[in-house]
Amino acid sequence: MYVHLAMLILLQSFHFFYTLITFFSCSQLKKNGKEPKVGAEILLKAMSYKTKVCERSTSPRWDEAFHFLVRDPKEELLIVKLSHSWGQALGTVVLPLREVLSEQGLVLDRWLSLDGALPESQILLRATLKILDTQLAVCRSDGTREGSEDRDHVIHRRDTEPNLRHRSPLSQL
Fold first, then answer.
1. Nearest Cα to 100, choosing from 130, 124, 123?
2. Interval 81-97: pLDDT, tens
3. Which CATH superfamily is domain 2-172 in?
């Protein structure tokens, strides 16, 4: 518990973090006649991404991942908009990133209900908040940076899932 609190203090003081959003699937989308060709637009502040458009289905599956730079997770909102062929709106999810801060390991992984859709319509997503560092980030119980001898928590860079299509702001430059 103390290490988790120290990590949150570190996150608040340095302001260098990112969130990785992974979309898996949707279920029970409404359909008017034919099944929709569903795409998702993911927005965080001024940055946005679009998924591929899935072929006609009321339960599309993406398995895509997106990186966003985050300045203040206590204040920022992640918005997911689902639409049929980028025209007709099918539903929206608004996720305050502060909800990720309260999750074990700073990972929110669950089904979320869609606003503007059928009551049973949901999207499965994973939002992971990480300290932004290309090699290594060290969190200390006293909130200090490198130089202290006792390390409480080390976050190593992990390889990404090979079966996910990743997009990040840096890869689009």
1. 130
2. 998 888 888 889 999 99
3. C2 domain (2.60.40.150)
Yes or no: say if 81 and 30 are a contact pair by the CB < 8 Å rule: no
Residue indicated by tokens 């502060």: 98
Which residue do the tokens 């001024």 mark? 46
For the chain, the average pLDDT equals: 73
Please tell me what DSSP assigns to residue 158: -
Domain ranges, ordered by start, for the chain: 2-172
**Following CA atoms 114, 120, 123, 125 in sequence, which dihedral angle do they give, to the nearest 10 degrees?**
110
pTM: 0.66
Strand partners, 50: 41
Residue with tokens 């895509």: 64
Is residue 146 within 8 Å of residue 138, measured between CB atoms? yes
DSSP-H helix ranges across the chain: 2-14, 98-101
- Could you read off the pLDDT of 117-162 as tens digits, one per residue? 878 888 888 999 887 764 444 444 444 444 444 444 444 444 545 5
Can you say how many angstroms the Cα of residue 147 is from the centroid of all Cα atoms in its chain? Answer: 32
Say how far apart CA 95 and CA 92 lie, in whole Å: 10
